[in-house]
From TrEMBL:
Site (May be important for catalysis): 258
Family, as annotated: Belongs to the glycosyl hydrolase 29 family.
Protein name: alpha-L-fucosidase
Organism of provenance: Paenibacillus foliorum
SMART domains, per the entry: Alpha_L_fucos
Alphabetical UniProt keywords: Glycosidase, Hydrolase, Signal
Keyword Hydrolase: yes
Length: 424
């Protein structure tokens, strides 16, 4: 069996992915937790099932947008907490093939993204607000959590687990090679072996031995000897870990921050708080500078289209990456401390200075005097001179540093000017 290091090697090269939240909740357009948040009845929620037509769903357009944005892998919500399946599961009627859409939408996603050379991830929620044997009353999020009529409802949780494991098997059997299995999520006592997690992982690896799996089945991925189901990578949500993710011995663990483009995962028609391309670029750089990845979410609307606001951000991020990709793909954290003017990423003897703050005078590189063979602007190859200004000789405390002067009062790229330093 392959090791975590072997399985995640490609993942730590690719660094940037697209998360896609799409389902029945895209119709009311108030976010993906709507059924739970609003304690919505099944009868009410089924009206969206009866309307779901995916009439403008063109996954090839999604795939082209991801590729143009420089995203190397994608993760699609095949089933969210509401239990609705975008795939043609033989284990339920609550699926896209029984809606007006009338087809297996995961199949079309897989084919489209594979055609563009983008690695494939499938999200699957291990909780389920639709299944009769998933406990509702007293749960922290279920629509029936306060519903007295559901209090004494008989539950056969093993039957639910058979269903859940069976759907995961379908996803990993019916679509060829899948690169990422992205589970969501454990909570309270619903964690680890409550899901028969070891059995689930062994089944997954018997079908897809090289697949990488997130850490949301439970367990402690940071332990000296993590559980078999603890996952291949850590998945912080809506936060960039201040120091990256390390295990108890201080060794880096693969991780990926999942971040929304606005303030919701699922389509929310009135949420216009979109992050700028500059924010996304700097977030990506921050992740890589801490040996992590960025999984950036988009939320197609009820018809299946990614909106213009999202596409514009993706396009601008992609243009920056087109010119500066060497500072992201294949890179990780540098051995140098974070500089006051920005960030460092590194790949071998190439150190990438991501300069955010122009400041006054030359850019100062602490500890690099005599260690820089070449310096250039990454975006166009412009040669930059490494030379100490005469005034620097007056200060003994900066003798060990190197200086590079950028002409003009503004940075060449105000979003992130990247200087490639080839070290001796």
């Amino acid at each position: 069996m392959s090791t975590r290091e072997e399985r995640t090697r490609w993942f730590l090269q690719d660094r940037f992915g697209m998360f896609i939240h799409w389902g029945l909740y895209s119709i009311p357009a108030r976010g993906e937790w709507i059924r739970g948040n609003e304690r919505m009845s099944y009868e009410h929620y089924k009206t969206y099932f009866d309307e779901f037509d995916a009439s403008r769903y063109q996954p090839r357009e999604w795939a082209k947008a991801a590729k143009a944005a420089g995203q190397k892998y994608a993760v699609l919500t095949t089933k969210h907490h509401d239990g609705f399946c975008l795939f043609d599961s033989k284990l339920t009627d609550f699926k896209a093939t029984n809606t007006p859409a009338g087809r297996d939408l995961v199949r079309e996603y897989v084919d489209a993204f594979r055609e563009e050379g983008i690695s494939l991830g499938l999200y699957y929620s291990i909780i389920d607000w639709h299944h009769d044997d998933y406990p509702g009353y007293g749960d922290k999020a279920h629509p029936d959590r306060d519903n007295e009529s559901a209090k004494d409802k008989p539950i056969d949780f093993d039957r639910y687990l058979t269903y859940m494991h069976g759907q995961v098997k379908e996803l990993l059997t019916n679509y060829g090679k899948i690169d990422i299995m992205w589970f969501d999520f454990s909570y309270d006592d619903m964690t680890g072996e409550k899901w028969k997690a070891t059995e689930l992982i062994r089944m997954i690896r018997s079908i897809q031995p090289d697949i990488i799996i997130d850490n949301r089945l439970g367990g402690n991925i940071r332990a000296a000897e993590p559980e078999e189901y603890a996952g291949d990578f850590f998945s912080p949500e809506q936060i960039i870990p201040p120091g990256g993710i390390l295990d108890v011995k201080g060794a880096p663990i693969p991780w990926e921050a999942c971040i929304t483009l606005n303030d919701n995962w699922g389509y929310h028609s009135t949420d216009k708080n979109y992050k700028s391309a500059k924010q996304v670029i700097r977030t990506l750089v921050e992740c890589v500078s801490k040996n992590g990845n960025l999984l950036l979410n988009v939320a197609p609307d009820a018809k299946g289209e990614i909106n213009r606001e999202s596409l514009d951000v993706l396009r601008d991020v992609g243009e920056w990456l087109r010119l500066n990709s060497d500072s992201i793909y294949g890179c990780g954290g540098a051995t140098l401390p974070k500089p006051e003017w920005g960030r460092f990423t590194q790949n071998g003897n190439k150190l990438y200075a991501h300069v955010y703050d122009r400041g006054i005078g030359p850019i100062y590189f602490e500890g690099l005097k005599g260690k820089i063979m070449k310096a250039r602007l990454l975006r166009d190859g412009t040669e930059l001179k490494v030379e100490a200004p005469w005034m620097a000789q007056e200060y003994s405390d900066i003798e060990g540093g190197a200086f590079i002067t950028l002409s003009g009062a503004k940075l060449p790229d105000e979003m992130d000017t990247v200087i490639e330093l080839q070290l001796w």
